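Dear colleague,

Thank you for sharing your sequence with our group. We've completed the structure prediction you requested, and as agreed, I am returning the results in plain text so they can be pasted directly into your records. Please verify that the sequence below matches your submission; if there's any discrepancy, let me know and we will rerun it promptly.
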Amino acid sequence: MTQTCRIVFPLYPGVTQLDFTAPHQVFNRMPGAETVVASVGGADIEGDGLVFTRLAELEAVEGCDVLCVPGGFGTTAAMLDEAYMASVRRLGAEARYVTSVCTGSLILAAAGLLKGRRAACHWAWRDLLTLFDVEVDEGRVCRDGHVITGGGVTAGLDFAFVASSEIFGEDAARRVLLGLEYAPAPPFEGGRPELAPPHILEQVQRAMGAAIDDRRAGALEAARRLRAHTS
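Please find the predicted C-alpha cells below.
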C-alpha cells in the first residue's frame, strides 16, 4: 500500500501562478501524493490573471510532509502578513521537507526556516537572502538537508523532479518526466543573466527597478521582525 505524502502550497495575493502550478502538476502525479492548495481564510487568490478558488483554509491545515512556498510579485506583502507567516512558520517547523520556488525562499527565510542554510532564488532577488543569514546558491535547484529550493519561475519544474526523486524515488520521477514529455529545448538562450544579451539584461533590470527597491525595503522589515521574534 502506497503511503500518503501531503504537500501543501500556501498561496497569497500576487503569487506567480507557474511557481506553484508547475510543481503541483509534477507532484500531483506521484504515487501517494496528496496536494493541498491553501490560503489565509481560504480566500480566492489571483495570480497572473488567473483566479484560484475553493482553496483550503491555511490556518486549519494541521500539518504536512512537504511545504512548498511559491514566489511572485506579492512576496513582499506576504513576508509582512503576520497571519500568513505564522502558518508558514508552523507548517515548516514540522514538515519533512521545506521547499520553495523563486522568491518563495525569501518567505521561508523571513519565517526563520532557512537560517544557516543555502538556498536558491530568482536571480534578481537572491542577494536579499543574506539579510536572513542564508547563503545564496546560484543554481537552478539547491538541496541543503531537508531544504530544497528552486530558482526563478521555470526552475520550478526542475525543482519538482529533484524533490520527487528524493521523496517518491527516481523511477516514479522518471515516469512522470516522460509522461509530461519534459525535454526542454528553448528557441534561444538567455534565461539567466549571464546568458542574456547585455541590452536585454539592461531592459529587464530597468523594468524591475522600482520592484527591487520595494522588495528590499520589505525584506529589511521582515528581517527586523524575525530578529524580534527570535530574540
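Summary note from our side: The chain has one domain: 5-230.

Kind regards,
the structure core
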